[in-house]
Write a structure and sequence with these properties.
Layout: E1 4-5, E2 17-18, H1 39-42, H2 46-59, H3 61-75, H4 77-85, H5 87-102, H6 114-126, H7 132-151, H8 158-168, H9 172-186, H10 188-195, H11 199-209, H12 216-224, H13 239-244, E3 250-253, H14 258-265, H15 271-281, E4 286-294, E5 299-305, H16 321-329, H17 334-346, E6 353-359, H18 361-370, H19 373-378, E7 380-387, E8 402-408, E9 432-436, H20 449-456, H21 463-470, E10 476-487
Parallel strand pairs: 5-6, 6-7, 7-8, 8-9
Antiparallel strand pairs: 1-2, 3-10, 4-5, 4-10
């Protein structure tokens, strides 16, 4: 059953419910960036707020499109030719167009597109005059933030609410002061955890309401549930990261250390054991290729992919921060190329069935492999299991690939794909998303692979058995457990 999640209650409480990723939710705004405080909004059900946010989100692009068409018409050579022939008509038309493009009760400050339109739009951003579409987008994000606060009570505390209200209103100085006070009171990690359910919404609002028009694209893509191709602060294109992560990828056989040997000795076809194996691999460049003589007589392979090393921005392995940003934004990365080299060096035959299990960046890479036409044409990728990974903005080339996403709702990282708890966007029906809350709460503990393994090992959760039931084809005798050291080049 696709889209099952654990109910959001208190730490340690779990349950099942239908996934709500089909919509982004947040408290309503007034249309001018001011947060709404009426009792009706505060008493609404979170699902209703999410559903309501879809209406202004869907309508928000329309005023911009209308403004662009009117701007293009006014700036066209035909309008200039008509102005020479009929100056009186041209003056009246220009005045009517100017009123339409600047009417606060209509399109707002709507010129955009072309040299003239973009110049006016940039000046409008500097003077805080904005089109009606931005007001609609702000309302949609505000509704999503309000909905998240219903399910994440820490967002409703006075300091956190002061911060989110300031961001919704575009008051950056007040937002920074509230963030500093929140950090002084709760610490950086608890503050990050508190804001994590609406982090993408807050970044998008900042992009919409600041004076920099180059980062608006990030906000609009986030609003629509698409794949951001720019960074949220400066609007830098994702292609720049490619130049920081250019390696062809390399894989070399490695010998397991005593700790890893001990972990692998008790491993088996079990989701908890797979995550524990990933813990044993660490995040300094190792990956594991396992071959299994399955009970049906077929030899299958499991690829285990650890996540990011946070020691340095960039290192000699694909498991660095640069690789993480690259993996979120693109599918052809140094990590995916190194994994393909690993299977090639191991002699995995074409057409072999492969299951990829990854934590964090490893899960992103597993999904990127599912998006790689060359990879899925060479091997039969049957399952992708991601643990705490932001993969919801990616789609496998082969829809038959079974995608299983495991998410701790207190984990900041899975929401970096733009689909956090406040999102109104659904995962595909053939995906299985299992989400829960537990006592870890604070990031980075909530993101640790061992925390995921411990939670899944709990008898209170049915998710372990549910996942294991889907991977029974990989039951059998483990033939080899071969670690590989992955390098950028």
């Amino acid at each position: 059953m696709a889209g099952q999640v654990g109910t959001e209650a208190g730490p340690g409480e779990t349950g099942d419910r239908k996934d709500e990723t089909g919509g982004r939710r947040r408290p309503g705004g007034t249309g001018d960036g001011k947060p709404r405080s009426d009792q009706a909004a505060q008493g609404c059900d979170p699902d209703l707020l999410i559903a309501t946010s879809v209406l202004p989100a869907d309508a928000a692009p329309a005023p911009g499109q209308g403004g662009a068409e009117l701007t293009a018409a006014c700036a066209s050579w035909r309008s200039g030719a008509q102005a020479v022939r009929r100056p009186g008509w041209a003056l009246g038309t220009a005045l009517a167009a100017a009123r339409a493009l600047t009417n606060p009760a209509g399109l707002g400050l709507a010129p955009n597109g072309g040299a003239l339109g973009e110049t006016v739009r940039s000046l409008g951003a500097l003077t805080r005059l904005r089109p009606a579409g931005v007001a609609m987008a702000v309302d949609a994000f505000a509704l999503r933030i309000e909905a998240a606060a219903k399910e994440h009570p820490n967002l409703a505390t006075p300091l956190a609410k002061r911060l989110t209200d300031a961001v919704i209103a575009g008051r950056r100085v007040q937002a920074l002061r509230a963030a500093r006070e929140l950090s002084d009171l709760m610490g950086v990690t608890r503050t990050l955890t508190t804001l994590s359910p609406v982090l993408m919404e807050l970044l998008a609002l900042n992009g919409l309401l600041d004076e920099n028009p180059t980062n608006d694209h990030f906000a609009w893509v986030t609003l629509a549930g698409g794949i951001p191709t720019t960074d949220p602060l400066f609007g830098l294109p994702a292609g720049l990261i490619r130049h920081l992560n250019p390696g062809p990828g390399r894989a070399e056989r490695a010998e397991p250390d005593p700790v890893l040997e001990k972990v692998l000795a008790r491993s088996g076809n079990d989701i908890v054991r797979y995550i524990e194996d990933i813990c044993g691999l660490g995040n300094h460049g190792l990956a594991l290729l396992r071959s299994i003589a399955c009970t049906d007589g077929t030899q299958r392979y499991v690829v285990l992919l650890p996540g990011t090393s946070f020691g340095r921005l960039s290192n000699s392995t694909p498991q660095d921060l640069v690789g993480a940003f690259d993996g979120v934004l693109r599918t052809d990365t140094t990590y995916t190329r190194a994994v393909k080299q690993m299977l090639l060096r191991a002699g995995v035959p074409a057409g072999a069935e492969v299951m990829a299990v990854g934590h964090s960046l490893g899960g992103i890479t597993a999904m990127n492999l599912a998006c790689d036409v060359e990879f899925v044409s060479t091997y039969r990728l049957t399952h992708v299991i991601t643990v705490g990974s932001p993969i919801d903005n990616k789609r496998p080339v082969d829809p038959a690939v079974r995608v299983i996403s495991l998410v701790n709702k207190y984990d900041v990282i899975p929401g970096l794909d733009g689909r956090g708890p406040a999102s109104a966007n659904e995962v595909p029906d053939n995906w299985l998303e299992l989400a829960w809350t537990d006592e870890t709460y604070d990031y980075p503990l909530s993101h640790a692979p061992q925390a995921y393994a411990d939670t899944l090992d709990s008898p209170e959760l049915p998710f372990r058995a549910q996942v294991n039931e889907l991977i029974t084809a990989y039951e059998g005798e483990v033939l080899t457990n071969q670690p590989y050291q992955l390098r950028d080049k």
